[in-house]
UniProtKB/TrEMBL annotation:
Record-given protein name: Zinc finger protein
Signal peptide feature range: 1-24
InterPro entries in UniProt: GDSL (IPR001087), GDSL_lipolytic_enzyme (IPR050592), SGNH_hydro_sf (IPR036514), SGNH_plant_lipase-like (IPR035669)
Cited Gene3D superfamilies: SGNH hydrolase
CDD domains: SGNH_plant_lipase_like
Keywords per UniProt: Signal
Pfam family, one: Lipase_GDSL
Family as reported in the entry's similarity comment: Belongs to the 'GDSL' lipolytic enzyme family.
Amino acid sequence: MKAYNFMPCRILFFVQLITPCVVGGKVPAIIVFGDSTVDTGNNNQILTVLRSNFPPYGRDYYDKKATGRFCNGRIPPDFISEAFGLRPFVPAYLDPMYNITDFAVGVCFASAGTGYDSATSHVLNVMPLWKEIENYKEYQKKLEAYVGIQKSKYIIQDALYIVSMGTNDFLENYFAMQSVRAFQYTTEQYRGFIIGHVENFIKEIYQLGARKISLTGLPPMGCLPLERAANMLRGQGDTCNNNYNDCALKFNEMLSALIQKLNKELPGIRIAFANPYGIILQMVQNPASFGGKVPAIIVFGDSSVDAGNNNQISTVLKSNFEPYGRDFYGKMPTGRFCNGRIPPDFISEAFGLRPFVPAYLDPMFNITDFAGGVCFASAGTGYDNATSQVLSVIPLWKEIENYKEYQKKLEAYVGSKKAKYIIQEALYLVSLGTNDFLENYYSIQSKRASQFTIEQYQGFLIELAENFIKQIYQLGARKISFTGLPPMGCLPLERATNIIRGHGDACNEKYNDCALRFNVMLNGLVDKLNRELPGMKMVFSNPYELILQIIRNPSSFGRWYKYYIIKYNYLQAHILKKALHF
């Protein structure tokens, strides 16, 4: 199988495509069949040369570990599992590190190099599709023994099934030299032969309980690296094999028609066609439109982006205890004010970097880690230095001092030229301001409230924000995402306070109005600085409306509010790429 990496927007696209088939119900598990596009390590446990359990595979996976995924990091089922509120990875069924307690919420039966045609699996001695189904039947028995008949039936019927294969049937089998299938069938006949196998497979897993299925089409397989390299050897240049691409397009048309047919014929089934062809072809033909490389993510702000710096200072404002971190890797509270990852982590991963951004003060990390991303944020801080004094946290000026220290370490580590490149090409995430109002101005006995009207204080903070941006601009920052305020009157503490006051479980509209007006001023500041500062590319990231929608009308998001938050973070990354011309 020709391994290729999925771009972050490809992942987002993949998740969007499978959404329609699961709307209206919870997904208790992700169940995967297929080839190397979705194999999470089963080939490690069989006698085949087709494995990816060595570097550079896995270099961006957790602990930089090569797991058997044919990728530098995670693969589509992993992202999809996390997007639906399950584990951030789907374990391989044959991996001895896992058992039925893990597989109850997600399991992968895929085998790199396989196809719908059993003859395809013989080429590299991998698992044929019929064996994947046998393993699935065995899994069902184990699941029933583990959770009972009723719950097992629920998991099997409500799980999302991801099916991704077919490329090997053509590239490793039909189009291969001395192919038996090529003597037996024309290309048109072989496509029909494979479609027949697809139909039989879907009907078989339907009989076994599958109802929600995402069926993936073929990519532009003539553009895969090996095919382009073969064209170069033939003296045809670094071009795609259009014969293979045409085959993929025609097969996808047949696959789409099959899906429509099965959705009509099989009661209760919901199959969605996930077609990767178009977007992958765009990436191949016009990679510049998807932007360039971001060498690092650099973060300033408060608890919305603090990855754990407060753990290392004398303050009561820490989150290094449960239930914080319960959905983070290793179920470990890291100092993030969240059950799992926070926006910079998702954005870092979406740009092809590590799936988390480490805190600068965390002794577990050093400059080798920080070269690809670093967080200076401190929960409880604000633009106003007086805000940081309320809970004894790191003021913004100290975050800048730490950033200057980081620059010196970076230069010593990678050299002056590369350090300058990283600093100027990095994406800077800035998220703070809520504490300036809630922990400072609106607090009891606030000095700022006696010094300023609310309008004056907003203007005071805008001046501080401008000075901050100009300061990091002078230090090299050029690409900045500047985050506005959320509907801060709807935060849990404010709503709880309203209950105590006898106002019911309502948002504090006064605070929300303040946030709205402040965001308008921030947006104006962003426009002003983009005009004034040469080379500056700054975007205003406004979380207000999405969060307000989730709070006011959660039912419109179904049970998938977590999916929408994750999708929002990946979408933000895609928007940043376009807006900042990455």
